[in-house]
Design goal:
- Strands 8-7-6-5-4-3-10-9 form an eight-stranded parallel sheet. Strands 1-2 form a two-stranded antiparallel sheet.
- The chain contains ten helices and ten strands.
- It is about 40% helix and about 15% strand.
- A hairpin with a 2-residue loop joins strand 1 (about 1-5) and strand 2 (about 10).
- By secondary structure, it is an alpha/beta fold.
- The N and C termini lie far apart (about 40 Å).
- The chain has one domain: TIM Barrel, CATH 3.20.20.
- It has helices at about 40-50, 75-90, 100-110, 130-135, 160-175, 195-205, 205-210, 225-230, 240-250, 260-275, and strands at about 1-5, 10, 15-25, 55-60, 95-100, 115-120, 140, 185-190, 215-220, 255-260.
Length: about 290
């Protein structure tokens, strides 16, 4: 399966891609404030590539529970502008922009971004698809119910996996109708968004249904609260649980994974692929001493 983005493509039959999360926010649930300064953000992005990131996903608005009023596009761009052009020019991997604002997407694409990751799945500002189509960029559509700022409110589902697949299939058709080729679209079930912990688990179990839409499945489970519900661990101690869920999700069909912990995730994914896909030739690491 191929995922095309501005300036390149990923053959996802070769290997799973790992996307590093970079938040230029003061209040994200795990790394809020760490990379708010442009120099810190740029240094972290460069480090993530060295750790094995195939792309960097840059966001300026926290979507954690209780994050407060959503940012306007202008407020969001004030945080992104000092970083976007520098990263687009410097990184050897595609830069993805995490936003639900069409104007932010347009500005970031004009500065060289290659992928737009819309957490609203085109329900907030469908014009995002117009800018993606014009730029020839990739588009990630995520499942979330409600307006930005209310994505974490509980929802009731009959069959969460079926409803997620139905939503994403519908929104993919919206994107195609607005000029985005299907080959440039990936689908994210929105783990932790509009879902209680048990619903997030059910959505992950249902990934095979999502793969039937014929587009790559993109997941983000890193450090999320449902892992805390499963393990009783605080956010700082959820790495192992996140890696376990990530590997299980790959076995169920996920082909792109988004994470705060790039090196650990890349190592886990490569090791798992050696078992799950013996036809692939894994890279041989240099032996370490001690």
């Amino acid at each position: 399966m191929i995922f095309d983005y501005r300036g390149g493509s990923w053959d996802l039959s070769e290997r799973v891609r790992v996307v590093g999360i970079l938040n230029v926010t003061p209040d994200s649930f795990y790394d809020g404030g760490r990379y708010l300064a442009p120099d810190a953000a740029i240094a972290r992005a460069v480090a993530m590539v060295a750790e094995g990131a195939d792309a960097v996903d840059l966001g300026a608005e926290s979507t954690r529970p209780g994050a407060g009023a959503p940012l306007t596009a202008e407020e969001e761009w004030l945080r992104l502008e000092p970083v976007v052009a520098a990263l687009a020019a410097r990184l050897p991997v595609p830069l993805s922009i995490d936003t639900s604002h069409a104007e932010t997407a347009r500005r970031a694409l004009d500065q060289g971004a290659a992928i737009v990751n819309d957490v609203s799945g085109l329900t907030h500002e469908p014009a995002i698809a117009d800018h993606v189509a014009r730029a020839g960029a990739g588009l990630v559509l995520m499942h979330a119910e409600g307006a930005p700022g209310r994505f974490h409110e509980p929802r009731e589902y009959g069959d969460v996996a079926d409803e997620v697949a139905e939503f994403l299939g519908r929104q993919m058709r919206v994107a195609v109708e607005r000029g985005v080729p299907a080959g440039r679209i990936a689908l994210d079930p929105g783990i932790g968004f509009s879902k209680r912990a048990e619903q997030s688990v059910a959505a992950l179990r249902g990934l095979p249904r999502l793969t039937r839409l014929g587009r790559p499945v993109y997941i983000g489970v890193s450090r999320k609260s449902f892992l805390g519900a499963l393990t009783g661990r605080a956010v700082e101690a959820r790495l192992a649980a996140g890696l376990g869920v990530t590997i299980a999700a790959i076995a169920l069909g996920a082909r792109i994974v988004r994470t705060h912990d790039v090196q650990e995730t890349a190592d886990a994914v490569r090791a798992a692929e050696a078992l799950l896909h013996p036809d692939l030739t894994p890279k041989t690491a240099q032996p370490t001493r001690g």
